[in-house]
Amino acid sequence: MNGISFDYITEYLNTLIEEDDEGILEMEQYANENNVPIVQKEVANLLKLMITIQKPMRILELGTAIGYSSILMSRSSKFVKEIVTIERNENMAEIARNNMSKFDENKIISIIEGDCLKVLEKLEDKYDMIFIDAGKGHYNEFFPHCLRLLKDSGVIISDNVLFRGMVANNDLLIRRKITIVKRMRTYLMNISKDKNLITTVLPVGDGVAITARRN
Ligand SMILES: C[S@@+](CC[C@H](N)C(=O)[O-])C[C@H]1O[C@@H](n2cnc3c(N)ncnc32)[C@H](O)[C@@H]1O
């Protein structure tokens, strides 16, 4: 058990997801071999579904790593016209740029190198979808900016919100993760209780929250 779902459920659900995109498979293999954290298979599938339903033209991503999720999103729908992704690790950004030159056929992804919070403070254009997948301890600081940069009809997707189950169950809590877990609990409380927002938290992957403005 990964702290979130029974292994047999996760394993079974993963048998239903078939990925035949060679580029995506190549990046998955690289990530596995080099211990690069990328979205889990079922979260990747959820992103594709959300993009298919929402048809976002402009996507903002926090946390590029090797560019796996941004490339996956760029290939999910012909409606996606621009993806901006933020990464503070120089080496990751370099690998991501190489992957983008190989796999971002329509050249719609651009990387901004820097710390998410500093970059977010400077951004002004609005996005249809924002994917938060960086700095688990800082979602509370990122979120007000994400909301400011979100179009009225937009969606914010936050990954790792259950953090191996620790956010929901103290028995799973590792001492050195207490601060991150406390902050994540505050984050989930805030986005769930805000009367202007509607949020659902899904026990998928490491936990995914999907948030939109109420209309
Ligand atoms: C989980 S990985 C992103 C995975 C990527 N979204 C994917 O699925 O392919 C998180 C990345 O965020 C970066 N990161 C963490 N904190 C950050 C911050 N405050 N600002 C910018 N990047 C950050 C890390 O260097 C790491 O590469």
Beta-strand percentage range? 15-25%
Class of secondary structure makeup: alpha/beta
**SSE succession:** HHHEHEHEHEHEHEE
By CATH's scheme, which homologous superfamily applies? Vaccinia Virus protein VP39
The geometry reads as globular
CATH-derived architecture: 3-Layer(aba) Sandwich
Largest beta-sheet details: 7 strands, mixed
Descriptive account of the structure:
By secondary structure, the protein is α/β, with parallel strands linked by helices. It has helices spanning 7-15, 22-33, 41-54, 68-74, 90-103, 116-122, 139-148, 178-193, and strands spanning 58-62, 82-87, 109-113, 127-132, 150-159, 197-202, 208-213. It starts with 6 loop residues before the first helix and ends with a strand. The model has no long low-confidence stretch (mean pLDDT 96). It binds S-adenosylmethionine. It holds the Pfam family Methyltransf_3. Keywords: Magnesium, Metal-binding, Methyltransferase, S-adenosyl-L-methionine, Transferase, tRNA processing.
Features:
8 helices; 7 strands; single chain; binds S-adenosylmethionine; alpha/beta; globular
Question: What's this entry about, in short?
Answer:
This protein has 215 residues and is α/β, with parallel strands linked by helices.
Task: Compile the SSE list and pairings.
Blueprint (H helix, E strand, L loop, with lengths): L6 H9 L6 H12 L7 H14 L3 E5 L5 H7 L7 E6 L2 H14 L5 E5 L2 H7 L4 E6 L6 H10 L1 E10 L18 H16 L3 E6 L5 E6 L2
Parallel strand pairs: 1-2, 1-4, 2-3, 4-5
Antiparallel strand pairs: 5-7, 6-7
Helix pairs in contact: 6-7
This protein binds S-adenosylmethionine.
